[in-house]
Amino acid sequence: MCVFAQAYPTRTVRVIVPFAAGGGSDFIARQISAKLSENLGQQFVVDNRGGAGGLIGIEMTAKAPPDGYTLMIMSASFSATAAANKPAFDPINSIIPVIEIGSSPFVLMLHPSLPANNLKELIALAKGKPGQILYGSSGVGGVTHLATELMASMAKITLVHVPYKGVAPALTDLISGQIHFTFGSYSTAQGPVKSGRLRALSITGGQRHKMLPKVPTIAETLPGYDVELWFGVMAPKGTPPAVIDRLNATLNKILQDAEMKKNLDSQGMTPSGGTPAHFGERIRKDYDRWVEIVSEAKIKPE
Asked: Are residues 91 and 134 in the same domain?
């Protein structure tokens, strides 16, 4: 490892989160930044830069000096936002992976008034009422929007998309019965599902989740469907490989920490870790799939 990387960091590191405080990316970023500060002896400071579905913070990261002193902690929205908006600064090729932190499936949450006890029945209902089933998302071109359109495409159904500015307002309208269903993270779903205000119909991962073992996967009805919410650390393209390697090694160690595992577990997340290349493959695979869905569903950026 070069001398620069051995000495890194010698000053405060900014950790951009392209969303407002209080969301999933922010929760993960604060946990990870605190552990990086402990392990590397300099402050890693979270900088929330929300707006434009994450594009403001993503662009700030892409255009920051590639010296290791600007990082970004981002969710699976990264690939979705890049595919749906195709911004001129080209996030997929101007930001590089450091490490995947963890992943979990989304939960398909349904209002109890809808007469569907499983995904098969929801699909049959949508086929019988084309253009009458309303679903909410965290915004046009966001990962929950594209994940629902992928399901609709595979099931050959037509749904009506109601975009919101984030998951919280979509959830409020779902609980009050203004919309019929939405996809949300496990941490978002657990309260309203446990209280019976909403029903967990399916999860989006390739296999059942330990926190919701009785809830079937979408793939059990639509084979091949597999969408996960992931979180990871990224950096501007051109950041020295030795710095990326130092961060990756430190973060792999942090992800073995019992407290960190417990914090991720509370969010229904499975720790990931691994190499930058492994995380890069996940980002690219998601991006390629979302580009197809954006084209097929004729999704236009707002």
From this structure: no
The encoded tokens of residue 167 equal 């998951």
Give Cα 202 to chain centroid, integer Å. Answer: 17
Residues near 252 by Cβ (< 8 Å), separated by ≥ 6? 99, 273, 274
Residue type, 143: V
- What is the Cα–Cα distance from 168 to 165, expressed in whole angstroms? 8
Nearest of 171, 20, 25 to residue 107 by alpha carbon: 171
Kindly report the pTM of this predicted structure. Answer: 0.93
Residue 302 belongs to some domain of the structure: no
Distance between CA atoms of residues 52 and 197, nearest Å: 31
The pLDDT tens digits of the residues spanning 181-223 come to 999 999 889 999 999 999 999 999 999 999 999 999 999 999 9
Instruction: Say whether both 110 and 185 belong to one domain.
Output: yes
Q: CB of 114 within 8 A of CB of 181?
A: yes
Residues 34-51 pLDDT 10s: 999 999 999 999 999 988
Any idea what the CATH number is for the domain that residue 127 is in? 3.40.190.10
Counting as low any pLDDT under 50, the low residues of the chain are none
Q: With CA atoms as reference, report the closest residue to 140 among 55, 204, 217.
A: 55
Same domain membership, residue 261 and residue 179:
no
Q: Which of 98, 21, 26 is nearest to 66 (CA)?
A: 98
The C-alpha atoms of residue 110 and residue 202 are separated, in whole angstroms, by 9
Cβ within 8 Å of residue 14, ≥6 positions away: 45, 47, 64, 69, 70, 71
Which amino acid does the sequence have at 178?
Q
- Buried (b) or exposed (e) across 79-116, using 16+ Cβ within 10 A? bbbbbbbebeeebbebbbbbbbbbbbbbbbbbbeebeb
Query: What is the Cα–Cα distance from 204 to 206, expressed in whole angstroms?
Result: 7
Domain that holds residue 162: 105-220
Geometric angle at alpha carbon 233, from 229 and 236, rounded to 5°: 125
- Is residue 170 a contact partner of residue 136, using CB atoms and an 8 Å limit? yes
